[in-house]
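Supplementary Methods S3. Input chains for the assembly prediction are listed below.
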Amino acid sequence: MAQTKLVVTCKVCGTEFELPEDVMDGEITSCPTCGARYIVKLAGGKAVLEEFKGDVEDYGE
Amino acid sequence: MRACIIGASGFTGGELLRILLQHSGVEIVCATSRKFKGEYVYRIHPNLRGFTSLKFVEPSIDAALKADAVFLALPHGESVKWAPQLYEHGLMVVDLSADFRLKDPNAYVEWYKWPQPHPYPDLLKKAVYGLPELHRDELPGARLIASPGCTATASIMALAPLAKHGLLSHIPPVIDVKMGSSGAGAEGSVLDMHSHRTYVIRPYEPVHHRHAAEVEQELSRLAGREIKVAYTPHAVDVVRGILSTAHVLAEKDVGEPELWKAYRSTYEGSKFVRIVKDRLGLARYPNVKYVLGTNLVDVGFEVDQRLRRIVAFAAIDNLVRGAAGQAVQAFNVAAGFPEDEGLRTIPAHPL
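Predicted structure tokens for the full assembly:
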């Protein structure tokens, strides 16, 4: 059975991108354009992006 | 089309040769150099050995009249002696000097120290400023194209989205430009000798640099009001490349999504513009390293919420996008060729 494509929109740069068919709830994804990172939240066959605040660069040493 | 390059022994002349030799719709019928007439062009441009048996010829109007289009790669103040005659003969003229870039005839007295205003104000009006991303509609059929200055190109491209979308404040943007040594041309001064030029990071004409006039002209046109810029170039220790960093103190809070929209809508459909603002990967902002040898313009930005400061960037290859490549791009649009003909180059990596 063909699955509906999960297309999401980056909240930072507005790029629409497709999530993999086997994306899992809680998986971390990133925008292909600006690199903003998100946690994928799946519910009712839909995907929602939640901001990921995981890691930062630090060149300030 | 048959093309002639007047002043073909300089760096931009060499790049015009390199690009036009790869252009499917152009035959180079003459390349002039007073100094090197009779010599094979590859003796002066060694990278072209094996790709052409063209020889330099004496510069003359008669030589140029063999062509349909003439590229003037001459010093400022020289093109103005050639362009009117070539234009009168019905040729397409692409001028890489500054002689037809500024619309105000009096500006040449202030910025280029000419003793009197521009002698051909009517031609100035007809000249199209050859930055295709901002003047694409004016280019088809144009017969006089004024190709923009190198540091001006990067600075205008960095700031155009902000000017167009009302994001410039009444405080002049501060533009800090870094440029490579090839910007000084093929016949440099003593300061261009290796011993003086290597390890260099120094200001060059820190106030009143002549490219500021072009930047102000173009940003004012986009903003619909007069824009002044605080413009300071620096010479840095690379052969090619320009990075322009512009600081804009905004009058209101500006968010990243708003800036993405401004940059995207300004450069939508532009084959040579890449917006580089990435939180991942090895290049998170524009970097000259990834545009060298190409006609690409990498633009990017960052927001300093604390100061309401927008930092805008553009990286180009000064000899390609800042000169020969941009001239061919504009020529392509004017002559009806695909805009990227002769210019489809993926940057080499690593360099």
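Residues 320-335 of chain B form the longest helix (16 residues). The interface with chain A takes residues 256-257, 260-261, 264, 275, 277-281, 284 of chain B (CB under 8 Å).
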